UniProtKB/TrEMBL annotation:
<keyword id="KW-0560">Oxidoreductase</keyword>
<dbReference type="GO" id="GO:0005829">
    <property type="term" value="C:cytosol"/>
</dbReference>
<dbReference type="GO" id="GO:0004477">
    <property type="term" value="F:methenyltetrahydrofolate cyclohydrolase activity"/>
</dbReference>
<dbReference type="InterPro" id="IPR020631">
    <property type="entry name" value="THF_DH/CycHdrlase_NAD-bd_dom"/>
</dbReference>
<keyword id="KW-0658">Purine biosynthesis</keyword>
<keyword id="KW-0486">Methionine biosynthesis</keyword>
<dbReference type="Pfam" id="PF02882">
    <property type="entry name" value="THF_DHG_CYH_C"/>
</dbReference>
<keyword id="KW-0028">Amino-acid biosynthesis</keyword>
<comment type="pathway">
    <text>One-carbon metabolism; tetrahydrofolate interconversion.</text>
</comment>
<dbReference type="InterPro" id="IPR046346">
    <property type="entry name" value="Aminoacid_DH-like_N_sf"/>
</dbReference>
<dbReference type="Pfam" id="PF00763">
    <property type="entry name" value="THF_DHG_CYH"/>
</dbReference>
<feature type="binding site">
    <location>
        <begin position="165"/>
        <end position="167"/>
    </location>
    <ligand>
        <name>NADP(+)</name>
    </ligand>
</feature>
<keyword id="KW-0511">Multifunctional enzyme</keyword>
<keyword id="KW-0368">Histidine biosynthesis</keyword>
<comment type="function">
    <text>Catalyzes the oxidation of 5,10-methylenetetrahydrofolate to 5,10-methenyltetrahydrofolate and then the hydrolysis of 5,10-methenyltetrahydrofolate to 10-formyltetrahydrofolate.</text>
</comment>
<feature type="binding site">
    <location>
        <position position="231"/>
    </location>
    <ligand>
        <name>NADP(+)</name>
    </ligand>
</feature>
<keyword id="KW-0521">NADP</keyword>
Length: 288
């Protein structure tokens, strides 16, 4: 049996049609929604992602402002820039591309962003709201994964979902969103014992470990749903995920590819969050 493919690129295109429509309505009624993107340094992968974000904004009728800072910028310089964007009434969303150079505290930077403009959903306030099931800006990658599962009509209620990886930007919020869908969640990580025994029980596996081809076919229950969040380069420099796609696709029921899976959905959810932030700000002004 070969797994059914959940194509993030196609789904993104469908969702972006609605985003474009909504952006145009907001532009007509108020002004063009606007996302500010801060890129510190010259990390090659980050440059690609930021370029894609700016281009995606343009395609959907969202204004974007790209602020590039040199790699040796001080933490204070980044904070000052964020504070200026926080004050700017024409800016709805702010994101700082991660990772940052080592001498800058990511946590400090994220906490400087106005919660209402935190379109990455990384601010402590948004993290706390998510964990309490309150309205918030949801982190883009895990939110994109949920949309992909929904698009394939995968009902999560009562299912055993295993998240591989406990990062703050993917693993932990992913577990939270799966819980919200009434899945039974295992959050596995590098210290988890007998991992294969656990993965073999899982109905849904979300691989977010950052290790090329980590999830092998013998770790997957026949018919399971396998979502690959990994973005790695193999020894030939070719893009690959955390899942051994060629072999796992013969065991899994559903699978996502890399590229063309979760990656494009991350950017689509960022566009969606920018519209939500813009709408919230327009509403707030109307209610004043
Ligand atoms: N501030 C943030 N920083 C980072 C985030 C984030 O959500 N917010 N996530 C990742 C990188 N990322 C977005 O920034 C991201 C990664 C990959 C893709 C993507 O579309 N990948 C394509 C392949 C692109 C390529 O050729 O390299 C795919 O999978 O099809 C989008 C966004 C870390 N930093």
């Amino acid at each position: 049996m070969t797994a059914q493919l959940i194509n993030g690129k196609d789904l993104s295109q469908q969702i972006r049609k609605n985003i474009k429509e909504k952006a145009s309505q907001l532009t007509e009624k108020y002004r063009q929604p606007c996302l500010a993107v801060i890129l510190v340094g010259e990390d090659p992968a980050s440059q690609v992602y930021v370029r894609n974000k700016v281009k995606s904004c343009e395609d959907c009728g969202i204004k974007s402002i790209l602020q590039r800072l040199p790699a040796d910028s001080t933490e204070k310089e980044v904070i000052d820039l964020i504070n200026a964007l926080n004050q700017d009434k024409e800016v709805d969303g702010i994101l700082v591309q991660l990772p940052l150079p080592k001498h800058i505290s990511e946590q400090k930077i994220i906490e400087t962003i106005d919660v209402a403009k935190d379109v990455d959903g990384f601010h402590l306030h948004n993290v706390g709201a998510l964990s309490c099931g309150l309205p918030c800006l949801k982190p883009c990658t895990p939110h994109g994964v949920i949309k992909m599962l929904e698009s394939a009509n995968i009902d999560l209620e009562g299912k055993l979902a295993l998240v591989l990886g406990r990062s703050n930007i993917v693993g932990k919020p992913m577990a939270q969103l799966l819980l919200e869908k009434n899945a039974t969640v295992i959050l596995a990580h590098s210290k988890t014992r007998n991992l294969q025994k656990l993965t073999l029980q899982a109905d849904v596996i979300i691989a977010a470990v950052g290790r090329p081809l980590f999830l092998k076919a013998e770790m997957v229950k026949p018919g399971a749903v396998v979502i690959d969040v990994g973005i790695n380069r193999n020894s030939e420099g070719k893009l690959c995920g955390d899942v051994d796609f060629e072999n796992v696709k013969e065991t899994a029921g559903f699978i996502t590819p890399v590229p063309g899976g979760v990656g494009p959905m991350t950017i689509t959810m960022l566009l969606e969050n920018t519209l939500i932030a813009a709408e919230n700000s327009f509403q707030k002004k109307e209610n004043q």
